[in-house]
Write a structure and sequence with these properties.
By secondary structure, the protein is mainly β. It has one domain (10-163): Lipocalin (Beta Barrel), CATH 2.40.128. It has helices at 10-21, 122-130; strands spanning 24-32, 40-42, 45-47, 52-61, 79-85, 88-100, 103-110, 136-143, 146-151, 158-163. The strands form 2 sheets. The chain has an 8-stranded antiparallel barrel with strand order 1-4-5-6-7-8-9-10. Strands 2-3 form a two-stranded antiparallel ribbon. A hairpin with a 2-residue loop joins strand 5 and strand 6 (88-100). The longest helix is centred in the first third of the chain and has 12 residues, at 10-21. It is globular, with a radius of gyration of 17 Å. The chain starts with 9 loop residues before the first helix and ends with a strand.
């Protein structure tokens, strides 16, 4: 009788682990403000670079297949997510998800209508001034309930998430 040996690469193992851990609702435990000239509006105040804000909301990620949002897919499928700040919910999505030399990379982007939108709430001011979840992040899975996202283009833009 012949036996079949299945081997997974390290990248495949990381993707599978992320597919199992990422779906769910994650509290935004902390968010380190990156370097922006105008500051970040939150709770009616303006904060500047290197300030860390705590417990500012959550992100909900549905179940997904990494194969469908891999950067090599043309076009990659979007995974709709919801970011909640205060009492307001914002439509975001995962546009790409792939392994790289530095680990797993996830690309988030706002998933609302195109165009300019008036900022009428404190929550909207925070979303648009902070650029949270609007770029490529390196994912560090600490354990099944804790992950860290670090912006690829700015190591000081760090988001710590804890699964609810």
């Amino acid at each position: 009788m012949a036996s079949i040996i299945v081997s997974c690469s390290k990248d495949d193992q990381q993707l599978h682990q992320a597919e199992m851990i990422l779906p769910g609702t994650w509290k935004i435990e902390s968010f380190q403000i990156p370097k922006y000239g105008l500051g970040v509006s939150y709770a009616g105040k303006t904060f500047y670079v290197d300030t860390i804000l705590y417990y500012i909301g959550s992100i909900t990620i549905p179940e997904f297949s990494a194969d469908r949002v891999h950067a090599s897919m043309n076009p990659a499928s979007k995974v709709p997510c919801e970011v909640t700040i205060g009492s307001e919910v914002f439509p975001f999505s995962i546009h790409e998800f792939y392994p790289s030399e530095g680990g797993l990379v996830i690309y988030f982007q706002f998933n609302g209508p195109d165009g300019l939108h008036p900022i009428t709430t404190a929550e909207q001011a925070f979303i648009w001034s902070s650029y949270i979840f609007q770029t490529n992040y390196r994912i560090e899975i600490l354990d099944a309930k804790n992950i860290t996202l670090t912006r690829l283009s700015n190591e000081k833009h760090v988001i710590s998430l804890t699964k609810e």
